[in-house]
Design brief:
Layout (H helix, E strand, L loop, with lengths): L2 H20 L3 H26 L6 H28 L5 H25 L3 H14 L1
Helix pairs in contact: 2-3, 2-4, 3-4
Length: 133
């Protein structure tokens, strides 16, 4: 076996291991990615709605890049912790839940700016109103 073949074989084995190791994360990563994109879209729309295009700065846009890097890394670390440290604790679900909560709250804040009223308060009133009757 030549050096090129052995390196190719080694790389394929590593890629196969990574694919199997992280296949469980695909749903969480796609969901978090969707929430980040939705929040970004609504954030840009809200910024345009309140302060025009000049209110959108590179510093604010830089937060998007950090979210796209840090959130998946947090989920990957949660996978490692769940697999090797404490398998009884659902670290992936907890981490994805916390991240999703932060993003959904931001989505509601942006939609409140766009719509001109607090959407979350209206939803809460509708839910509690049905329970009181």
């Amino acid at each position: 076996m030549s050096l090129k073949e052995s390196v190719s074989s080694y790389i394929l084995e590593i890629l196969a291991f990574l694919a199997v190791f992280f296949v469980e994360l695909s749903a969480a990563l796609y969901a978090i990615g969707f929430l980040i994109m939705a929040d970004t879209f609504l954030g840009i729309w809200a910024a345009k709605h309140t302060g025009g295009w000049k209110s959108i700065t590179s510093r604010k846009a830089g937060r998007i890049v950090s979210k796209l890097i840090v959130y998946p890394l947090a989920i990957i670390v949660a996978k490692v912790a769940q697999t090797y440290l404490t398998p009884t604790i659902p670290w992936i679900d907890v981490t994805a839940g916390i991240i999703a909560t932060v993003e959904v709250k931001s989505i509601f804040e942006n939609s409140s700016v766009i719509l001109g009223y607090n959407l979350w308060q209206k939803i809460k009133k509708a839910i509690w109103k049905d329970k009181e009757q």
